[in-house]
Amino acid sequence: HRSWTIETLDYVYVGVALLGTWWGLFFVLGLCQTTISMCVANWYFTRDRKHLAKGLVTGSFFKVIFFHSMSVAIGSFFIALLTWLRLIFQWVKTQVKEKESSFAKYLMGCIDCCLWVFEKALKYVNKIVYVSVAISGKSYCGAAGEAIPLLAMNTARVVALNVIVFASMLMSVVEVVIDTVFYSFLIDDKMHGDKEAEQYFAPRELHAFLKAKGDGAEKGCCC
Questions:
Q1: Which helix (H) or strand (E) element contains residue 202?
Q2: What is the CA radius of gyration of the chain?
Q3: Membrane-spanning regions, if any (predicted)?
Q4: CA angle (86, 130, 46) in 5-degree steps
């Protein structure tokens, strides 16, 4: 009984340590993502880009640290928790693998697949929420309340963009930049959807490209 208790406590300590480590790693990553998003959003929503503020990166970083750390902490905790749960599930699978029936194996596979899909979706939504936090300055929940409905209204565009990003195998930093520009354009389009291209914050070429991709994706979905 004593050895079982010690072994159980060891598992608990390791589990908590892993959760804390992942939380810290995802928190640092979230700070970087939000800082990049704030810089890109400042560029996007500035009409005269020749007069962008100096020290934009440093200023954005300190704004994120002082005003948005809690939002990043919440988002990073969700990602860390889901990653942790997936690890626990994988460990459970290895423990019961030899005793599994065919139905149990099928069920385990379905759960594993669902967790993987949910993790990918949560990471993407979380990244967009960071972008929304950087643009709106709202809390995590407030930014999520704005971002998720806007993404839902532009599902075709979201899918089209992610296909391009996946096909290009872009690096994480570049992907954050693209996601920020894309989400900024969704806000821009919501503000100026019925107006001429000159009214948009987006440069003319970028406006034409994103409009074409979005309209093409929506027509494809309708067909």
A1: none
A2: 21
A3: 12-45, 65-89, 159-186
A4: 155
pLDDT digits (tens, 9 = 90+) for 167-199: 555 556 778 888 898 899 889 888 876 666 667
State the amino acid at position 169 in one-letter form.
M
Residue 164 in tokens: 């391009």
Planar angle of CA 191, 195, 198, nearest 5 degrees? 95
Closest CA to 140 of 149, 130, 150: 130
d(CA 168, CA 24): 29
* Contact residues for 153 (Cβ-Cβ < 8 A; gap 6+): none
Secondary structure class of 222 (helix, strand, coil): helix
| Per-residue model confidence as pLDDT tens digits over 11-31 | 778 888 999 999 999 999 999
Show the tokens assigned to 36. 């990049």
CA-wise closest residue to 41 among 157, 142, 183, 144: 183
Cα–Cα distance, 12 to 10 (Å, whole number)? 5
Query: Rounded to 5, what percent of the chain is helix, strand, coil?
Result: 85, 0, 15
